[in-house]
Design goal:
Elements lengths: L7 H11 L4 E5 L6 H8 L7 E10 L3 E10 L3 E2 L1 H7 L4 E4 L2 H8 L15 E5 L8 E5 L5 E6 H8 L2 E2 L3 E2 L2
Parallel strand pairs: 3-6, 6-9
Antiparallel strand pairs: 1-8, 2-3, 2-5, 4-10, 7-8
Length: about 160
């Protein structure tokens, strides 16, 4: 987990406040699966941002990690990410590595990176909703915010990495 003594939820809220984002936090029962949390929060699945840590390999020895963010009703296109970065392979990162890089358990990963080794990607489809929602570093907390503020504050590399249903 992160060497920082503050948890990711606190760091996220401090950053959003410092950057002037208008957001709201929702407390709810612990849930990390997109289709179930959307029902609990009352949002459309496409409003949610699903965050997956992807490992791209370059040959046999080198790997880089990307935090791929797509709308909740989509899947991450691993072959697109592999192609964008000219990797030899792309896969969902092992749970232990994903949790170490994000400081969060799987399902609670927000669409922001607090680790320089984790490169932030987002599909432009995220911008189709004025408001987005995501689990905020904890399984029992979500943040609703304007998608424009998300893009402005997170500075993700925008790439077509979503597979629509």
């Amino acid at each position: 987990m992160s060497a920082d003594s503050k948890d990711i939820h606190e760091r996220l809220r401090e950053m959003l406040s410092r950057e002037g984002a208008v957001y709201r936090v929702m407390e709810h029962e612990p849930e990390g699966r997109t289709e179930f949390i959307a029902k609990i929060r009352g949002n459309k699945p496409e409003q949610a941002i699903k965050s997956i840590v992807v490992q791209v390999r370059f040959g046999k020895k080198e790997s880089r990690y990307y935090l791929a963010n797509v709308p909740g009703h989509c899947r991450v296109d691993l072959s697109a990410i592999q192609s964008i970065f000219n990797g030899t392979d792309a896969s969902v990162a092992p749970r232990e590595k994903a949790e170490a890089l994000t400081g969060c358990v799987i399902g609670a990963i927000p669409p922001f990176s607090f680790d320089e080794q984790l490169i932030l990607l987002a599909d432009p489809l995220i911008q189709q909703n004025e408001e987005v929602v995501f689990n905020a570093g904890r399984l029992d907390r979500s943040i609703f915010m304007k998608s424009a503020d998300y893009i402005r504050i997170a500075h993700p590399r925008l790439e077509n990495i979503a597979i629509r249903p």
